[in-house]
Amino acid sequence: MTATIEKVVLPPIPAKRYFTIGEVSELCGVKPHVLRYWEQEFTQLRPVKRRGNRRYYQHHEVLLIRRIRELLYEQGFTINGARNRLDSHGAVHGGPPDDAGEEGEVLEAPSATTATVDVDQLRKELLQVIDLLGR
Q1: How many angstroms separate the CA atoms of 109 and 17, rounded?
Q2: Which of 24, 36, 111, 121 is most buried per CB count within 10 Å?
Q3: What's this model's pTM, rounded to 2 decimal places?
């Protein structure tokens, strides 16, 4: 018997600057303790920590978590394999590998030191999401 892996439909990401760990958990379909573990395993994932050590994730980090989830849960990568894939293909990848077809466009996340949102880049990403949803 062959196991089939179904792609989970995740809710749209609201237009907010910061997300709590609970919000990210719901947006990405991953429990909070898993997110905390992934922070240790993936150096690209660095949420801002504020009062009381509370974590606040930015939009690009939510996209990165969704990509990690896809690699681990849907494509069957190990933690090391997912880490290597992210390192070699950029932090956030829009689909299959570059030679796999038209959806293989790479979307790079802003660096962790970027404090402001690039409105043009955000607009471009939102248009890409709208285009994907329209298919």
Answers
A1: 14
A2: 24
A3: 0.62
